[in-house]
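Ticket #4471: structure export looks truncated?
Reporter: QA, pipeline team
Priority: medium

Steps to reproduce: submit the single chain below to the structure queue and open the exported record.
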Amino acid sequence: MVLGVLIALGLGAVATEIGWKVEVYYARNAMQVELGELIGQGEERDNIHRCVEARLDQLSLIVDAAAKDGRLPPLGGIGVPPWRTWPRGIWASNAETVAHLGRDLLDNYSSAYEFADAMAALGAREIDVWTRLHALVGPGRALDGEEAAELRRAIGEARMIDRMIVGNGLRLKQIVTAYDLGYDAGSAEPYGTRPIKDFPICDPIGKAVPATYGQAPFDTLIDTVKANPFTNKTGSGVPKR
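Actual output as written to the record:
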């Protein structure tokens, strides 16, 4: 009887171990898709990094000139870097499963997703700082030294955030590649291969000048979302523009 119990317990342990291996297999496949999207979004930011720097250079010159003249010029839309979700849901929802990856593999995945967490946090800050920079957009008005200093600080913050997002994205991909974690190239492709012309931040500053101040980023967001819906066939709502 004792031998039978031991055999049953042993078989149960084996079955449990096999079950966890199956769960880990499916979790890793799902994370490869998630990592592919993260890597693609990181590549997208690397591709447009020069556009963001150039736009911030333009805004800096506008602020410097306005600080001397005491007046902002009429200014159209300045654009904004694309907002992305930096998905981490698969990783976050499989805590019990990923605990069975083994220490080294778990550390490597954790390192990759720490960069993803950082990019998501930076993305939230980026929306805020570009909203502040949109105080420049409008028909022309007086500018005092205190506001000019605040705008310069916002330009510096926006520049730092962009560089950190790009750097974190590059590091994430380096970790995934160096430790052979794997990622789904098809999930990365819609982001990483978009041409520069598809990004408003890479366009010249808008010629149409708003009649009032109080403008904000993403003025075409609602129309863009409606024109580029998520579908169960494409699995993507990545806008063409």
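Status: closed, not a bug. The export was complete when the record was re-opened. Leaving a note from the reviewer for reference: The chain is about 65% helix and 0% strand.
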